[in-house]
Amino acid sequence: MSLTSTSTLNNGVKIPWVGLGVYKVDKGEVALDTVKSALDLGYRSIDTASFYENEKEVGQAIRNSGLSREDIFVTSKVWNTEQGYEETLKAFDDSLNKLGLDYLDLYLIHWPVPGKFKDTWRALEEVYEQGKVRAIGVSNFQIHHLEDLMKDAKIKPMVDQVEFHPQLYQKDLLDFCKENEIQLEAWGPLGRSRYLDDPVLNELADKYGKSPAQVMLRWHHQHEIVIIPKSTKPHRQKENADIFEFELSEEDMRKIDELNQDKRTGKHPDEFPY
Description:
This protein is an alpha/beta fold. It has one domain: Alpha-Beta Barrel (TIM Barrel), CATH 3.20.20. The longest helix is centred in the middle third of the chain and has 15 residues. Strands 3-4-5-6-7-8-9-10 form an 8-stranded parallel sheet. Strands 1-2 form a two-stranded antiparallel ribbon. Helix 2 packs across helix 3 and helix 3 packs across helix 4. The chain is built from 10 helices and 10 strands. The mean pLDDT is 96. This is Glyoxal/methylglyoxal reductase. Keywords: NADP, Oxidoreductase.
């Protein structure tokens, strides 16, 4: 397995298991260089959003790479203030224009804005049916949001991208997504580097001859979760990609599961200041 290894979504589209997230990557040269180094290292999935204000640079870096468009999986998201049916159709076109692309591989509802996300989903279904995007999904949706959405949806979400790491092991959500053929994707899979000094992770890192970050990312992979770790540094991007040559034992997987404290680095979706 490698950076080109993929998971198959419920509509048959393939998404790389590991991608690059670009949240809080400054626009301009930093974003261009960050995406360029990732693509040079073999990354083939880039995750951005209108809220990140770096879609233009992501698109430019993809064009500069010389790679075929179909070889790169591009994700973007509709922000909370852009939600609603007509608004989302416009936001989608705006993202495409900024990226300078003819289509997206995945488009997500960024947060479940109360009273709006169903109309937003109708717009996603429309751009999907028009062939402007290969897959559609959601982000930061809890089980109750997914159940509510699927009551009225024509098309089931293909992805749910949520905060997920060993201190926020959302097992019930993971199980629900697996049962419903929704691919779970983790943002912040390293917990924003806040607990890389955890003794259990360090003990396992020593055991496998890997870094604590690699142990955490491998844990996600063995739980069949797509990951988009963010780093602007090429050596860290390389390290984050190097998780396919070892395997955690079942016992060690359980040890990491038990680190859960339901501890978030971001807002809880039910408490977000919409």
